[in-house]
Design goal:
By secondary structure, the chain is of the alpha+beta class. The protein has helices at about 25-40, 60-65, 225-235, 240-245, 250-260, 340-350, 365-375, 420-430, 435-450, 475-480, and strands at about 45-50, 55-60, 75, 80-90, 90-105, 110-125, 130-145, 155-175, 180-195, 205-225, 265-270, 275-280, 280-285, 285-295, 300-310, 330-340, 380-390, 395-405, 410-420, 450, 460-465, 470, 475.
Length: about 475
């Protein structure tokens, strides 16, 4: 029986229910056809064998690697072994329980080695979703190494270790099409060491990094899982340029169906302590957070990222004693870019598939693409309220700025609020005379432009919304400089 569905097999796979349809030879043939849709028909790549109530599936990249004509290249990849159970009603249990190893080397390219001591993944693949409705995975002892920058420079290297990684995710049908999926990842400890070569001095910079208690939660809404799988199948079936050229209308239709790929993606993460061991000494952080918000190929584009760190400590003697009180211990940044139309730009770009592959875009295409992406001629860069602070002072800031071809210079507004100005001046007064004479007057000038805020804070409202004019608390700074 040939199933009217397709599977994609990432490393996140799903589990069988207690009930199951018996595995059959016809079922194995059908599954082989499904997997070959995405991995090709090269003999030995896809193997499916019925075993009682389950199917043993092996995905082996070795026959594909053997086809690559690259003298001196060496690549190995552990075959992926899957156990599939037909649960009926379009549901499939999928289990992975094995170690994994991958290695690559080639002339003039960095080499790498990745291994996973044990990975155990199980959950349920739902044909109606073209995705896993639920999955749970545990990866233990993940090790990755990279050596060399090129064949002539083997001094650079990187080594990464993750003690364990736990993954859980669920997916449901999205009201707008595709699926809504949420995933959670936790990592108790991650280690990284990097050797960066110094071409001039001949010495290498060796840095070791330890991150504790990493946690990530991400949600993608409206992900067009079916359309993306159809695109993968099309590329596999039309691997040559000639085949692709002959089927450009079909490719354009598949790409159009896949847009906007996803409606939105949101992620938040936290980590515990971070320690960086360097030749200059140890740098540490008590913890941190981050967040990401993205929209797909939709008219109201948005890309936002934020992060915050706390408890920064640097090696003794790295900065002069007088500058120590000025060094921030906590800091945050939250910025976003909005006001662009990703859908209009993508629709225009798809028009290039109406001409032969490799042909230059028509004259003026870049200008049309920019006009489509920026319907108002600008994007807005927003800084959400954030804070940089040290034990003696705190500086809060926020603002928004418009940038783009419609304006000769960026325009916008901002607000800065500072507490602890006396601590800053005291630190500067302890600086060497040449530094103090240069910086203190500038600080006093900026202080004189402030206005009083709550609890003794100093406030600077900056208005640069009119090109060529800059107001600070209502005073025209540009005119003062003339």
């Amino acid at each position: 029986m040939t199933k009217a569905f397709r599977l994609t097999i990432p490393l996140c796979l799903a589990a069988a229910a207690a009930w199951a349809n018996p595995a059959t030879t016809d079922g194995a043939i059908g599954l082989t056809e499904v997997f070959q849709t995405y991995f090709g028909t090269q003999p030995g790549v896809v193997t499916v064998v019925p075993q009682g109530d389950t199917y043993a599936v092996t995905l082996n990249a070795a026959p594909l690697i053997a086809l690559i004509d690259a003298p001196g290249m060496n690549a190995t990849l552990t075959p992926l072994a899957l156990t599939l159970t037909d649960q009926g009603a379009g549901l499939w249990g999928v289990v992975v329980d094995q170690a994994f190893d991958a290695e690559f080397s080639a002339p003039d390219l960095p080499g790498f080695h990745v291994s996973i001591g044990h990975m155990a993944h199980r959950g349920t693949f739902d044909e109606r979703l073209s995705a896993f409705s639920e999955q749970v995975g545990q990866y233990d002892k993940i090790v990755s190494s990279q050596s060399g920058i090129s064949a002539d420079d083997s001094s650079g290297a990187g080594h990464y270790e993750v003690s364990s990684l736990h993954l859980e995710s669920t997916a449901t049908a999205s009201p707008t099409g595709g699926i809504d999926e949420t995933a959670k990842i936790t990592v108790p400890e991650a280690l990284e060491s990097i050797v960066v070569p110094d071409g001039e001095a001949g010495a290498a910079l060796d840095v070791g990094l330890t991150v504790k208690d990493y946690a990530f939660t991400g949600t993608i809404k409206g992900y067009r899982s079916r359309a993306v799988l159809d695109l993968v199948a099309f590329v596999v079936a039309h691997a040559s340029e000639q085949q692709m050229q002959a089927n450009l209308p079909a490719l354009k239709g598949l790409l159009t169906a896949a847009l906007p790929v996803f409606d939105s993606f949101n992620a938040t993460g936290t980590n515990g302590s971070i320690k960086a061991v360097t030749p200059m000494g140890d740098f540490t952080l008590d913890g941190g957070t981050f967040a990401v918000d993205l929209r797909g190929g939709v008219p109201d584009g948005l890309a936002r990222e934020s992060f915050a760190v706390k408890g920064l400590k640097i090696p003794a003697g790295l900065v002069p004693d007088w500058a120590g009180p000025l060094l921030p211990t906590d800091a945050g940044l939250d910025f976003a870019v909005s006001g662009y139309d990703a859908k209009a730009a993508a629709d225009l770009a798809l028009g290039l598939l109406d001409q032969p592959l490799g042909q230059d875009p028509p004259p003026g295409f870049e200008d049309k693409l920019l006009a489509a992406a920026l319907p108002t001629g600008v994007v807005t860069i927003t800084l959400a309220p954030s804070v940089v602070s040290a034990p003696g002072y705190s500086l809060a800031y926020e603002g928004a700025m418009q940038v783009g071809p419609a304006t000769d210079i960026p325009t916008g507004t901002a607000k800065f609020t500072l507490t602890g100005i006396d601590a800053i001046i005291a630190a500067l007064n302890a600086a060497p005379d040449d530094i103090k004479k240069e910086i203190v007057p500038a600080v006093m000038l900026v202080r004189g432009m402030s206005k009083a805020g709550a609890d003794g804070a100093l406030v600077w409202d900056i208005d640069g919304s009119v090109p060529g004019k800059l107001l600070v608390n209502g005073n025209d700074v540009m005119s003062m400089m003339r």
